[in-house]
Amino acid sequence: MAGARRQIGVFGGSFNPPHLGHLIIASEAQWLLGLDQVLFVPAGDPPHKLIAGATAADRVRLTRAAVAGEPRFAVSTLEIDSGLRFTVDTIAVLRDTLPQTDLHFIAGSDSLLTLHTWRQPERLLSLCRFAVALRPHDDEEAVQAAANRWGAAVGILPSVQVGISSTNVRERLRAGRPVRFLVPDTVELLISEKGWYRER
Hints:
It is a single chain. The protein is of the alpha/beta class. The protein is 42% helix and 17% strand. The protein contains nine helices and six strands, in the order E-H-E-H-E-H-H-E-H-H-E-H-E-H-H. The protein has helices at 20-33, 56-67, 78-82, 87-97, 109-113, 121-127, 140-150, 166-174, 185-194; strands at 6-13, 37-42, 73-75, 101-108, 129-133, 154-157. Strands 3-2-1-4-5-6 form a six-stranded parallel sheet. It is globular.
């Protein structure tokens, strides 16, 4: 329809490494929210966690490998290239550079539960909607209560819950255990070629 606003999902994270759970969440969000595209935005230096095991450039390369061939997904290096550390700043820049666009920030329930510790959470929710993916073993009532506290700008995605984490993938790699069917084949091949996450 002429003049319709584009709907873009913004999926931030360390992606250290990206795994099938990330792709499933992105795919479900794209379908449920009617998104035109999901932008994967690897973090450069997030204030809430220490990133170990791969450089920013490595994680971008892995994320690009993970989404290769999927036209609904793209990778943005905005945070890494610009040195942005806070989600509110990233979303503000995207709002400026993507006119006639509604932004939907895709996050796990852990992000919602700690949202009060983020920089300017009220401003963040004025710039985008928060689309929250439930995780296995979540207390769904607690997550819904947290969503209700923030109001209409936060919604819970009734998506597939996959119990895969980047931490677990890294632990398996360090132990020499297989990660096939946990990460995309392209990611597994790149990690194997480069020797990332193995014990030095």
